[in-house]
Every structure is written in structure tokens, then in C-alpha cells.
Amino acid sequence: xxxxxxxxxxxxxxxxxxxxxxxxxxxxxxxxxxxxxxxxxxxxxxxxxxxxxxxxxxxxxxxxxxxxxxxxxxxxxxxxxxxxxxxxxxxxxxxxxxxxxxxx
Length: 104
Prior knowledge:
There is one protein chain. By secondary structure, this protein is mainly alpha-helical. Helix content is 41%, strand content 4%. Strands 1-2 form a two-stranded antiparallel sheet. Helix 2 packs across helix 3 (53-66).
């Protein structure tokens, strides 16, 4: 997958994006399903968003930092490496757009 998946919160999403377990669960389940559907599938029927583990990691990072709007633009890029350390590591630097598997 060469082009990024760009996700933007609706006004409803912004109003409901709170750091509570229930709201995070909503974004991690229903929100992720919406991103997957909107991104579409490849010729083999695989959702583009599911093509790389890193895409879900980037999405989760944006969800966690999104209520404070510290995680940057929600561009989910398939070329980014899968994190070996938690994506929380150095989030202030990478803003969910890391360049290597274990640091910025």
C-alpha cells in the first residue's frame, strides 16, 4: 500500500473523544472498523488498513493522543515500520509517524 489512509474525526468524534476506557474502546472498535471500511480492500479482499500491523499501531497512537490533539495528523502510512517498542515511546517526537521500529 503506497498511499496513506487519512482519518479525520467528525464533530461527533471530537466531542466524544475522551480519555475514558469506554470512549477509547469505542474508537478502538467502531472507529477502527470505520477506517477499515473507508480505506477499502485490495484485489484479494484484504482490507488495506489490515495489510500492515504498523497501520493499526499508528491508529491506536492517534486515538490515545487525539483527545489532547498532541498526536498530529491522522495519516496512517503502510510504509512505516512496525514498532518493536510501544508506540508511546517518544510520542512527543514522532507524533505517531515514526521512522524506525524502536525510536523516532
